[in-house]
Structures are given as C-alpha cells and as structure tokens.
Amino acid sequence: MPIHVILLVLFGALLHATWNAMIKAGTDKSLDASLISAGGAVCALPFLMFLPLPNSAAWPFIGASAVLQFAYFQLVAGAYRAGDIGLVYPLMRGCAPLLIAATSGFILNETLSTGALLGTMTICSGILTLAFEARKGSGNAIRLALANACVIATYTYVDGVGARVSGNAVSYTLWMSLLPPVLLFTWAISKRGAVAVAMHVRYNWWRGLIGGGGSIASYGLALWAMTKAPVATVAALRETSILFALLISVIVLKEKASPWRYLAGAIIALGGLILKLG
C-alpha cells in the first residue's frame, strides 16, 4: 500500500476516533449519534453541486448502505448502554476486519499478500487485546458488539464495491451520507417525541456539525483508499482509530490506561508497519 494512502487512512482513523469520543462524552448517545450523522449530511450538501452524480450502478449500494448505517448507529448506542466501552468498542472494530479478511477472497476475489494478511491479523489482534482490560460487561453487550461487527463488515463490502462502481468515491460518500440521518431522526421522533428531539438538537447542534464533518471525511478517505488498495487491508488499517481513541482517553479525558492498552497500542503500531512493509 503506498505511503500516501496509508497516511490518509490514518488521518481518517484519527477523525473517526474524535467523533466517537464526542459521542462517548455526550449525555444522550443515541441522539448524539443521530446528530453526528445529520452533521455529516449538512457538510456534504454544499459540495454535491460541484461533483458528478455517481454512476447508475452505484445507487442500489447507496440505498443498502443507508439501511446498514442506520442499524450500525442503533447497535452502537445499544452496546454502549449495555456494557463497558473498553469491551464493546474493541469487539466491534476488531472483529469486523477479521470477518472481511476471512471472506474477501470469495466475495471480492481479492488476494492479500502475505505481508498484508499478517499486518491485518496483527492489527486485529492488537484491537482485541483491549477487551482483556474490560472490567465489566454483559452477555447482551457482547452480543450487540458482535452483531455490529457483522454490520460493519457488511457495509464495508457494500460501500467498497459501491465506491468502485460509482466512478467517483467522493461523490458516492457524500450522496451516501444523506439518507441515514433521515432514518435515524424518524426513528428517534417516533420513540422520543418531536419536542424532546428538538430540544436536544437546539443545545447540541454544534456537536453534530463538528462530529459529522469528521465522520464524513473519515469515511470518505477510507472509501477512496478502497479504490486504491484491497478492501480488507484498508478496513484493518482504518481500525487503528482505536489507537487514537486511547490517546484521547488518556490525554484529553484523563482516563487511566492499563498495561493492556499500552500493549494493544504497540501491537496495532506493529501491524501498521507490517502493512507498509508488505
């Protein structure tokens, strides 16, 4: 994988960790997730007029992705309510690239080099190491996290292929971002009422705008990279976001880091180096 692709994916991983930290720090994870999804759509709108429409073959993928993104955000909120983030996040983000690496050969007919496969497995091992530091969690949290790993792997395939057939990965990403917030807010209003949702938006709109911009930029960089390198490799490298999340938790949120976190960080960094050398 070229160095400029690796650096851009890593920058996207930093953005991903940042908007996840914003959800973690918020008071209502479900509505904050919806706000960030909406913020991504708002950030996308001004650029649509300057980009070509995705090819017609990409529109079914955009529709499928919207449904999967809706499921993703719902499962994220549910998993965080059910268990420790130190258990849930590594399981979600670590298992997804493992699923992709195990299945990309017969789904996309992609063959990973020995170095790429070793780097992918190393990164996943580092992420899953973080689960050992979790002091609390429930069977329900684990089930939700593993279900979301399947959703993440599925929408990665859908969007990876969709971006390739769209003719323009940036255009695909921006159009893909428009429908999920509609689904999320429709669901939120049906469950919480329009007044409660409107009050949350009134006081937290800035969180959605900042986090949404980071979210759409992060995913756009990943989809662009998938047009330049194997999906499984990009998916694994993108999950180094957990490493940035660890730094944010220690430096910004002032959380104590166990030895497992430092070990995981070293393993993830080693995996990134193997990907570059491979």
UniProtKB/TrEMBL annotation:
It is a multi-pass membrane protein. It comes from the Bacteria. The chain crosses the membrane at residues 6-23, 35-53, 59-80, 87-108, 114-134, 141-158, 170-189, 209-226, 232-253, 260-277. Keywords: Cell inner membrane, Cell membrane, Lipid A biosynthesis, Lipid biosynthesis, Lipid metabolism, Lipopolysaccharide biosynthesis, Membrane, Transmembrane, Transmembrane helix. InterPro entries: EamA_dom (IPR000620), EmrE-like (IPR037185), Small_drug/metabolite_transptr (IPR000390). It comes from Rhizobium altiplani. This is EamA domain-containing protein. Gene3D superfamilies: 1.10.3730.20. Residues 144-274 form the EamA domain. Coiled coil: none annotated. Pfam families: EamA. GO terms for molecular function: transmembrane transporter activity. It is found in: Cell membrane. One of its GO terms (cellular component) is plasma membrane. GO terms for biological process: lipid A biosynthetic process; lipopolysaccharide biosynthetic process.
